[in-house]
Amino acid sequence: MALGLGNGLNKTIRKKGLLLSECDDIGDLTLQGCDSVLDILNKVSGSASIELTKNAGIVGYFIADVACVYDLSRYKSLKFRFYVADNSNIASISALFFTTTPFDYGINFLKFEFPASGWNTFNMLFADFATTGAANWATVKGLRFSVNLTVDNATEKVNFDRIEIK
Q1: Are 134 and 105 spatial neighbours (Cβ–Cβ below 8 Å)?
Q2: Could you say which architecture CATH assigns to the domain 5-165?
Q3: Do residues 95 and 166 lie in contact, with contact meaning Cβ atoms separated by under 8 Å?
Q4: Residue 36, beta-bridge partner list
Q5: Selection from 157, 160, 162, 166 nearest residue 35 by Cα
């Protein structure tokens, strides 16, 4: 998602926040259990959204990791949009900020459980995120999105668009 966020790709510093990505290009995205394409028809803003499609044979969930090397200590919240065509097989969408890889400590995830079909907005205060270990908003290295399924063999697609820190 010009989610090559730490490399200066597609980031915009705004008066009231940081636009991490418009999700207009695939960029520096690390995927587990899914493939990604740009969807120019189904978007909230910009020229596209990122569509993640679960790979066949993957059980339970799929993941997209985004490099996000910023000092987020002066910000208060994460906001992003995601689209679910059919929510019958999706249990939750999770967001996890991490400070190391592998995740020996981090700022842990918050779930948006049972999202509605259509566009949804995830808008959470950093204070609402659970923390693990010596988590520190000043040393964030990445952001992980996880799509958790209710049916293991389901083939699902989820689009992500406009990721902001405020």
Answers
A1: yes
A2: Sandwich (2.60)
A3: no
A4: 52
A5: 157
pLDDT tens digit string along 57-101? Answer: 888 888 998 888 888 889 999 999 999 888 888 888 888 888 776
Sign of CA dihedral 127, 132, 134, 135: negative
d(CA 91, CA 93): 7
What are the DSSP calls for the chain, one per residue? ---BGGGTTT-EEETTEEEEE---S--SEEEESEEEEEESSS-SSSS-EEEEEEPTT--SEEEEEEEEEE--TT--EEEEEEEES-GGGEEEEEEEEESSSS-SSEEEEEEEESPPSEEEEEEEEGGGS-EESS--GGGEEEEEEEEEESSTT---EEEEEEEEE-
Instruction: Flag residues of the chain having pLDDT under 70.
Output: 1-15, 101-112, 133-134, 153
Beta-carbon count within 10 A of 107 CB: 23
